[in-house]
């Protein structure tokens, strides 16, 4: 396969996760732009807000049917050990609830359903999302710890040991990116579940959204 950047970008944007991370970048850049220019340039702030809202609604449309990913993972019994199966059930069930109720949040916000349902759907979706993120973070933490233990036992002077070390370190980077994205998205979800000055501040939300988006870029970018 070609290493050309344009080829990789085409492959990246052909994935649902790829286009989602691009539009997520638009969403949270526009949120920060709105916060920055609102005191001095209200007209520009309104345009930035429109861009943010449009990006958020577009992402919800792209995620149609995404809850089936969590459902299928549950159906296939996630995890190779009893501990990971238990963690996987909670993680995937939370993700499934998130994406399923996100559909109703989307159609409420565009006016197809009663707009008053949006707040309730947002809470249920964010609650499921938070549960999923917590258990995915726990799973990644366990695997990161296991990887460190395996690395200490490797014979670093052998070709096979070096190859295995590279694999472990590559996996570690991907898992750290996943943890960064999940922690950032958890902060955003908490702003919906329990609004507070820290989580709800535009800078907190903007930076968290960009951390999540760019970690997703890294994880989904073709090698």
From TrEMBL:
Molecular functions (GO terms): identical protein binding
Pfam families: PEX11 (PF05648)
Record membrane topology: Multi-pass membrane protein
Record localization: Peroxisome membrane
Source taxon at top rank: Eukaryota
Family affiliation: Belongs to the peroxin-11 family.
Protein name per its UniProtKB record: Peroxisomal membrane protein 11-4
Higher taxonomy: Eukaryota, Viridiplantae, Streptophyta, Embryophyta, Tracheophyta
